[in-house]
Amino acid sequence: MRRSSGLVFTRAEAADAQVVAELRNAAARQLTTQNGKGHWSNELTERGAAAELRHAQVRIAWRGTDAVGTFRLATRKPWAIDPSYFSDCRLPIYLTGMAVRPDLQHRGIGRQCVDEALRIVRAWPADALRLDAYDAHAGAGPFYFKCGFREAGRTSYRSVPLIYYEHFVLTETQP
Question: What percent of the chain clears pLDDT 90, i.e. is strictly above it?
Fold first, then answer.
C-alpha cells in the first residue's frame, strides 16, 4: 500500500477482480457515450480481470473506501504493440487498462496513477514505460503527452489506428 496526495495505491488481488472490472467498464461506457461505439467500448468480465492478475501487476487507486482508478503493468508486450516503433531499452514495462472513475475524471487522479506507475517502473528496475492509445477522439494521447510521454509512432492494428507512447525513467539504482 502506498499513499499519494490523498490516494492510496494497492496491488490488486483475486478478491479485487470485480472492482477492477467495474472501474474499467464504467470508463468504457463513458467513452462510448461520448464518442460512440468503438474498440474502447469493450468491457472486461470479472473472470478476465482475475486472469490479468496472474500475468501482471494491477494497481487500484483508493480514496477512502472508494476505488477511483486502476492500471496494469506487465513485462509482456500487449498484442497491439509493435516494438519496432520504440527506442531500444533493456527492460520495457507496458501500461494497459488504465481507467479513472468517470465522475472523478479531470481531477488529477489519472496523473497520480501515471506517477505511481512510473515510480513502480523505477523500482522494478526497468528503464521505459510504453503504451498505446487510440488515434481517435476517444484516445488518451494528449493526456499521456502532458504526463511526459513522447510519441514513438503511429500505426494501425487490425484496422484500429493507434499512437504509441514511451517514457524513459531513471531507476532508483541509477545515479
Answer: 89
